[in-house]
Amino acid sequence: MTEQARSTAYRTLDSESLRGPIGDHADVRALLGGRPQDWQVREVGDGNLNLVFIVEGPEGSVCVKQALPYLRAAGPSWPMSPERAFFENAYYSAVAPYVGTLIPKIYHYDAGLYCTVMERLSPHIILRQGLIAGRRYPNLARDIGEYVARACFFTSDLAWPFERKMDGLALFAANKPPVRITVDLIFADPYFASPRNRHTSPQLDEAVAALRRDGPLKAAAARFGQKFLNEPQALVHGDLHSGSVMVTEGDTRVIDPEFAFYGPIGFDLGAFFGNLLLSWYSQPGHATRDDDRLGHGEWILEQASLFWETFRGRFLALWSGHGKGDAFPAALFSAPHDAAALRSAQDAFLDTLFADMLGFAACKMIRRLVGFAHVIDFDSIRDADLRGRCEASALAMARALLTHPEQFRSMAQVIDAIPRMTRRQAAR
Ligand code: SR1
Ligand code: MG
């Protein structure tokens, strides 16, 4: 069968049937070495949506990701177009010139199988698992801050003439199923009694009932939902939580951009920031006799702060050095006396991104605590009372971020509002 014929027919791959289509690519065969029938193949996907295979040959290994036509987490009763794999590849192509080695190498995309052959990241692990295990990553916050600044700046109207962004908008406007999931699972379901929701019960029953009675909170979440749909500032990853980052001590990679679309920059910022906060709130649940997690908690908060500062600094530097777009045209600010006005406008824009980051972070936290798809930061805490206490504290912080934004104008105010973990809490 030719490569073309194989790639036209979609079927769900398994560890036997993927050998044919993968083996058709001479460069992948060379990378793996040996014959397809001798390769070791195992399915390792643990996410909500896709199949993920590791293929190992005598010379090397690759990762193969295939989009299923339904949600893996729910099964065939919840269909979802596998087209998201196309947009994942389109996103990688769009940001690759700007983000260097912060994304994996892509070897092939099979448009018929909705399947990508990419670099196997090893010995990397998923960041969320590393944070649960109490590991530290010295480059992480700077790398992700740089990543979001570069990916978002260079896909915004600040960097290029608007025609370029409009082409991107037209392309990614078709990535509707992931946007539908976000609209429903982040900005709607958590705030009413949707059958898809779950929470730690009975421990969180009262907190969840209070959340669903809280009119100002629901209005704030709805405003961020509206912003999500109405502010195509840049091409955003769309799902930049700690499960979408793979790490070693010295290397950071962003993966899984299948939710990519033109949206608010604060959505990516908030995803990463909110998941660091979730990790912080889950730490008492991972404390042991030997490790009270107090130091780890402090480190996580330092990273949250460093992430924002890195993003802010890099975004401003790019704006000053590469602002060739139709937003804030350079011609308007060419005289020395224009510098102050531009600087003030830049600061004001970064302030709006900061506020957006916090609001979206809060929405992301709430959905992981009381919505459909939870996170193992909390789910792996077996003592339900302890888990409930951790989750209730995280929920309270998220509610405060959404309902009292005036109290969180700076990172210091955010960090100060996070209750210091006590030795007693950590030891429980
Ligand atoms: C039903 S899909 C649930 C979540 O998994 C993905 O990682 C996204 O975060 C999505 O919201
Ligand atoms: Mg994902």
Structural write-up:
With 428 residues, the protein is an alpha+beta fold. It has 2 domains: 3-12 and 35-119, Phosphorylase Kinase, domain 1 (2-Layer Sandwich), CATH 3.30.200; 125-426, Alpha-Beta Complex (Aminoglycoside 3'-phosphotransferase, Chain: A, domain 2). Helix content is 50%, strand content 11%. It has 17 helices and 12 strands. The strands form 4 sheets. Strands 1-2-3-7-6 form a 5-stranded antiparallel sheet, sandwiched between helices. A 3-stranded antiparallel sheet has the order 8-10-11. The protein has a two-stranded antiparallel ribbon with strand order 4-5. A hairpin with a 3-residue loop joins β4 and β5 (75-79). α11 packs antiparallel against α12 (294-322) and α11 (265-282) crosses α13. The N and C termini lie far apart (61 Å). Residues 48-49, 71, 73, 181-182, 185, 239, 372-373 line the site of 5-S-methyl-5-thio-alpha-D-ribofuranose.
Write the layout of secondary structure elements.
Layout: H1 3-8, H2 19-23, H3 26-32, E1 40-43, E2 50-56, E3 61-67, E4 70-71, E5 75-79, H4 84-99, E6 106-110, E7 115-119, E8 125-126, H5 127-132, H6 140-153, H7 162-172, H8 176-185, H9 205-213, H10 215-230, E9 234-236, E10 245-247, E11 252-254, E12 261-263, H11 265-282, H12 294-322, H13 339-370, H14 376-379, H15 384-403, H16 411-417, H17 423-427
Antiparallel strand pairs: 1-2, 2-3, 3-7, 4-5, 6-7, 8-10, 9-12, 10-11
Helix pairs in contact: 4-6, 6-11, 6-12, 11-12, 11-13, 11-15, 13-15
The structure holds 5-S-methyl-5-thio-alpha-D-ribofuranose and magnesium ion.
